[in-house]
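Re: Re: C-alpha cell formats

Sure, here are both.
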Amino acid sequence: QVQLVESGGGLVQPGGSMRLSCAASGSIFSINNMGWYRQAPGKQRELVAIISSGGSTTYADSVKGRFTISRDNAKNTVYLQMNSLKPEDTAVYYCKASSTPWGQGTQVTVSS
C-alpha cells in the first residue's frame, strides 16, 4: 500500500505564499485522482483540490485562482502551491488518494 507524507507547512503572513509537497512511498503513476484536503480547528475536513492522472484539476471555490495543484509522476510527488494566503487558510493539510490511508498532515498557519 502506498503511503503519503506531507511537508512544507509552517507560519506565513497574510498575502504570502507557500508550497506543500506530498511524497509517496511508491509509484503514483497508476493512481488516478490525488487530492489535497484541509481541516481547520473545530471544522470538518474539506477538499481543497484534486488532480487526475491526466492532469485535470478541480478546486474548492474558496481557493480558486490562489492555489495550484500539480503532480510529478517521475518523482512520485504531488504539490500544492498556495498564493495570496489568508488567515482562513489556516489548517492541517493532508494529501490522499482513494487507495491510501490518511497521513499526519502538515500544519499551515497564516497570521501576522
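Second one below.
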Amino acid sequence: QVQLVESGGGSVLAGGSLRLSCAASGLTPSSYCRGWFRQAPGKGREGVATIDRYGRATYADSVKGRFTISKDNAKNTLYLQMNSLRPEDTAMYYCAARRDGGYCYGGLSASESYNYWGQGTQVTVSS
C-alpha cells in the first residue's frame, strides 16, 4: 500500500524560505511521476511542480525560479525547496504520485490523474 506523508510546512514572512518533504512508502521511485500541488482557500487545486523518473522537472509559471523540486530515491523522499515566498503562495501543499512508468507528461495540469496523495501540509506566507 502506497503512503505519502508530507512535512515541513509552516508560517514565514514574505521573502522567506521553506523546504517541504514527502516521504513515500510502498512505491518504486522509477515507476512513478511525483508532484507537488497546492490549494488555497476558495480556489481549485493547482499544479506546482513535477519530477519524473529521470529527474526532469516541470514548474508552474508562478513558481519558476523560486521553487525547486527534487527527490532522493534512496530515501524515497520528494522535496520542494521554496525560496522568495510570497503571500500568494499561501496554501495547503500536497504531494502526489502517479503510476505512469515514471513519466510526467501533462502531469502538472492533471491532478485527477494521480493515484496517491498525501494529507497535506500548510504553508502560510505573511507580508
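The chain is about 0% helix and 50% strand. The radius of gyration is 13 Å.
- S.
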